[in-house]
Amino acid sequence: MGTEQKIQLYDFASSPNCQRVKIVLEEKKIPYQTIPVDLKKGDQKKADFLKLNPYGKVPVIVDANTVLYESCIINEYLEEKYPEPSLMPKDPGRRAKIRILIDYGLNHFDSPYQRLRQELMKEEKERSVEAVENAKKDIKTLLQRFERDIGDLTYLAGDFSLLDAALIPRFLRLEGFGVLPDSSLPRLSRWLERVKGRPSVRAIM
After folding, report:
1. Closest CA to 90 of 34, 164, 10, 158
2. Are residues 96 and 77 part of one domain?
3. Which residue range(s) make up the domain with 44?
4. Is 55 in the same domain as 121?
5. 132 and 39 within one domain
6. What is the value of pTM for the model shown?
7. How far is CA 124 from CA 50, 91, 113, 118, 119, in A?
8. Would 59 be classed as within a structural domain?
9. Are 167 and 106 in contact (CB under 8 A)?
10. DSSP string, 33-100
11. pLDDT for 10-59, tens place per residue?
12. Both 33 and 66 in a single domain?
Protein backbone atom coordinates (compact mmCIF):
# COMPACT_ATOMS: atom_id res chain seq x y z
CA MET A 1 0.00 0.00 0.00
CA GLY A 2 1.60 3.25 -1.11
CA THR A 3 1.79 6.34 1.04
CA GLU A 4 -0.93 8.02 -0.98
CA GLN A 5 -3.29 5.12 -0.21
CA LYS A 6 -3.08 5.28 3.55
CA ILE A 7 -6.37 4.89 5.34
CA GLN A 8 -7.47 8.13 6.98
CA LEU A 9 -8.79 7.74 10.51
CA TYR A 10 -10.75 10.65 11.92
CA ASP A 11 -9.73 10.32 15.53
CA PHE A 12 -10.10 11.63 19.07
CA ALA A 13 -7.19 10.02 20.91
CA SER A 14 -8.96 9.19 24.18
CA SER A 15 -12.12 7.83 22.52
CA PRO A 16 -12.54 4.09 23.16
CA ASN A 17 -14.41 3.81 19.86
CA CYS A 18 -11.37 5.17 17.99
CA GLN A 19 -9.01 3.05 20.06
CA ARG A 20 -10.66 -0.25 19.09
CA VAL A 21 -10.21 0.65 15.41
CA LYS A 22 -6.56 1.59 16.00
CA ILE A 23 -5.93 -1.77 17.65
CA VAL A 24 -7.14 -3.58 14.52
CA LEU A 25 -5.16 -1.30 12.20
CA GLU A 26 -2.05 -1.95 14.31
CA GLU A 27 -2.64 -5.72 14.51
CA LYS A 28 -2.98 -5.92 10.73
CA LYS A 29 -0.12 -3.43 10.17
CA ILE A 30 -2.30 -1.37 7.82
CA PRO A 31 -0.74 2.03 7.10
CA TYR A 32 -2.99 4.84 8.28
CA GLN A 33 -2.90 8.48 9.20
CA THR A 34 -4.94 10.05 11.96
CA ILE A 35 -6.91 13.23 11.39
CA PRO A 36 -7.66 14.76 14.80
CA VAL A 37 -11.27 15.66 15.56
CA ASP A 38 -11.51 17.75 18.73
CA LEU A 39 -14.75 16.65 20.35
CA LYS A 40 -14.37 19.25 23.10
CA LYS A 41 -14.40 22.03 20.49
CA GLY A 42 -17.33 20.47 18.62
CA ASP A 43 -15.40 19.54 15.46
CA GLN A 44 -17.68 16.51 15.07
CA LYS A 45 -20.71 18.78 14.55
CA LYS A 46 -19.16 20.83 11.74
CA ALA A 47 -20.69 20.55 8.27
CA ASP A 48 -17.60 18.99 6.64
CA PHE A 49 -17.46 16.23 9.25
CA LEU A 50 -21.21 15.59 9.13
CA LYS A 51 -20.83 14.86 5.40
CA LEU A 52 -18.61 11.94 6.44
CA ASN A 53 -20.71 10.81 9.39
CA PRO A 54 -24.21 12.25 9.81
CA TYR A 55 -24.24 10.89 13.39
CA GLY A 56 -21.54 13.43 14.29
CA LYS A 57 -19.34 10.87 16.02
CA VAL A 58 -15.83 9.43 15.75
CA PRO A 59 -14.28 7.30 14.41
CA VAL A 60 -14.63 7.62 10.67
CA ILE A 61 -12.31 5.93 8.18
CA VAL A 62 -11.76 6.87 4.56
CA ASP A 63 -10.24 4.03 2.55
CA ALA A 64 -9.96 5.21 -1.07
CA ASN A 65 -13.63 5.68 -2.08
CA THR A 66 -15.05 3.95 1.00
CA VAL A 67 -16.22 6.07 3.93
CA LEU A 68 -17.32 4.21 7.07
CA TYR A 69 -18.32 4.96 10.65
CA GLU A 70 -19.32 2.90 13.72
CA SER A 71 -16.21 1.27 15.18
CA CYS A 72 -17.30 -2.39 15.18
CA ILE A 73 -18.55 -2.12 11.58
CA ILE A 74 -15.23 -0.53 10.59
CA ASN A 75 -13.38 -3.43 12.21
CA GLU A 76 -15.51 -6.01 10.37
CA TYR A 77 -14.71 -4.18 7.12
CA LEU A 78 -10.97 -4.16 7.89
CA GLU A 79 -11.13 -7.89 8.64
CA GLU A 80 -12.82 -8.60 5.30
CA LYS A 81 -10.70 -6.32 3.13
CA TYR A 82 -7.36 -7.01 4.85
CA PRO A 83 -7.76 -10.65 5.93
CA GLU A 84 -4.16 -11.26 7.06
CA PRO A 85 -3.51 -11.71 9.88
CA SER A 86 -6.99 -13.03 10.52
CA LEU A 87 -8.80 -11.69 13.58
CA MET A 88 -11.88 -13.91 13.16
CA PRO A 89 -12.12 -17.72 13.09
CA LYS A 90 -13.16 -19.50 9.89
CA ASP A 91 -16.05 -21.35 11.55
CA PRO A 92 -19.34 -19.40 11.13
CA GLY A 93 -20.63 -20.49 14.54
CA ARG A 94 -17.54 -19.23 16.34
CA ARG A 95 -17.68 -15.97 14.37
CA ALA A 96 -21.31 -15.51 15.42
CA LYS A 97 -20.44 -16.17 19.06
CA ILE A 98 -17.75 -13.47 18.91
CA ARG A 99 -20.32 -11.00 17.59
CA ILE A 100 -22.70 -11.92 20.43
CA LEU A 101 -19.95 -11.36 23.02
CA ILE A 102 -18.99 -8.01 21.46
CA ASP A 103 -22.62 -6.94 21.78
CA TYR A 104 -22.73 -8.25 25.36
CA GLY A 105 -19.53 -6.45 26.34
CA LEU A 106 -20.47 -3.12 24.78
CA ASN A 107 -24.26 -2.85 24.89
CA HIS A 108 -25.37 -5.12 27.74
CA PHE A 109 -22.70 -3.58 29.98
CA ASP A 110 -23.46 -0.02 29.04
CA SER A 111 -25.93 0.92 31.78
CA PRO A 112 -23.77 0.10 34.86
CA TYR A 113 -20.62 1.20 33.02
CA GLN A 114 -22.09 4.64 32.29
CA ARG A 115 -23.49 4.93 35.81
CA LEU A 116 -20.03 4.30 37.25
CA ARG A 117 -18.31 6.59 34.76
CA GLN A 118 -20.69 9.46 35.40
CA GLU A 119 -20.37 9.10 39.18
CA LEU A 120 -16.56 9.04 39.02
CA MET A 121 -16.53 12.15 36.83
CA LYS A 122 -18.04 14.13 39.70
CA GLU A 123 -15.96 15.95 42.30
CA GLU A 124 -15.03 13.43 45.00
CA LYS A 125 -17.14 15.18 47.65
CA GLU A 126 -20.20 15.00 45.38
CA ARG A 127 -19.92 11.29 44.60
CA SER A 128 -22.27 8.72 46.06
CA VAL A 129 -20.15 5.92 47.51
CA GLU A 130 -23.22 3.67 47.40
CA ALA A 131 -23.83 4.40 43.71
CA VAL A 132 -20.17 3.69 42.88
CA GLU A 133 -20.15 0.39 44.77
CA ASN A 134 -23.50 -0.72 43.31
CA ALA A 135 -22.31 -0.02 39.76
CA LYS A 136 -19.04 -1.88 40.40
CA LYS A 137 -20.96 -4.83 41.80
CA ASP A 138 -23.28 -4.94 38.77
CA ILE A 139 -20.31 -4.81 36.38
CA LYS A 140 -18.45 -7.60 38.21
CA THR A 141 -21.58 -9.76 38.02
CA LEU A 142 -21.77 -9.20 34.24
CA LEU A 143 -18.04 -9.91 33.89
CA GLN A 144 -18.51 -13.42 35.30
CA ARG A 145 -19.67 -14.55 31.87
CA PHE A 146 -16.26 -13.68 30.40
CA GLU A 147 -14.53 -15.23 33.42
CA ARG A 148 -16.33 -18.52 32.72
CA ASP A 149 -15.95 -18.42 28.94
CA ILE A 150 -12.23 -17.68 28.83
CA GLY A 151 -11.36 -20.78 30.84
CA ASP A 152 -7.78 -21.68 29.95
CA LEU A 153 -7.82 -19.77 26.65
CA THR A 154 -5.11 -17.20 25.95
CA TYR A 155 -7.60 -14.61 24.69
CA LEU A 156 -11.36 -14.18 25.02
CA ALA A 157 -12.19 -16.43 22.07
CA GLY A 158 -8.95 -18.41 21.80
CA ASP A 159 -6.67 -16.50 19.44
CA PHE A 160 -6.58 -12.71 19.59
CA SER A 161 -9.69 -11.56 17.72
CA LEU A 162 -12.06 -8.69 17.01
CA LEU A 163 -13.63 -9.52 20.39
CA ASP A 164 -10.45 -8.62 22.28
CA ALA A 165 -9.95 -5.52 20.13
CA ALA A 166 -13.53 -4.36 20.74
CA LEU A 167 -13.45 -4.74 24.50
CA ILE A 168 -9.90 -3.75 25.47
CA PRO A 169 -10.57 0.02 25.56
CA ARG A 170 -13.51 -0.50 27.92
CA PHE A 171 -11.58 -2.94 30.11
CA LEU A 172 -8.68 -0.51 30.41
CA ARG A 173 -11.19 2.02 31.74
CA LEU A 174 -12.58 -0.55 34.16
CA GLU A 175 -9.04 -0.94 35.45
CA GLY A 176 -8.83 2.83 35.88
CA PHE A 177 -12.20 2.80 37.67
CA GLY A 178 -10.92 0.21 40.17
CA VAL A 179 -13.12 -2.65 38.94
CA LEU A 180 -10.17 -4.75 37.73
CA PRO A 181 -8.09 -6.58 38.73
CA ASP A 182 -10.42 -8.39 41.14
CA SER A 183 -10.02 -11.61 43.12
CA SER A 184 -13.42 -12.83 41.86
CA LEU A 185 -12.17 -12.48 38.25
CA PRO A 186 -8.66 -14.02 38.23
CA ARG A 187 -8.70 -15.27 34.62
CA LEU A 188 -10.00 -11.98 33.29
CA SER A 189 -7.43 -10.07 35.33
CA ARG A 190 -4.64 -12.21 33.82
CA TRP A 191 -6.10 -11.68 30.32
CA LEU A 192 -5.99 -7.92 30.83
CA GLU A 193 -2.30 -8.03 31.75
CA ARG A 194 -1.64 -10.25 28.74
CA VAL A 195 -3.32 -7.95 26.22
CA LYS A 196 -1.59 -4.88 27.68
CA GLY A 197 1.66 -6.44 26.51
CA ARG A 198 0.63 -6.48 22.85
CA PRO A 199 2.18 -3.71 20.71
CA SER A 200 -1.25 -2.83 19.27
CA VAL A 201 -2.61 -2.18 22.75
CA ARG A 202 0.49 -0.34 23.95
CA ALA A 203 -0.07 1.99 20.97
CA ILE A 204 -3.34 3.24 22.50
CA MET A 205 -2.26 3.39 26.15
Report:
1. 158
2. no
3. 3-81
4. no
5. no
6. 0.92
7. 36, 48, 18, 12, 9
8. yes
9. yes
10. EEEE--GGGTGGGSHHHHHH-TT--S-EEEETTEEEESHHHHHHHHHHHS-SS--S-SSHHHHHHHHH
11. 999 999 999 999 999 999 999 999 999 999 999 999 999 999 999 999 99
12. yes
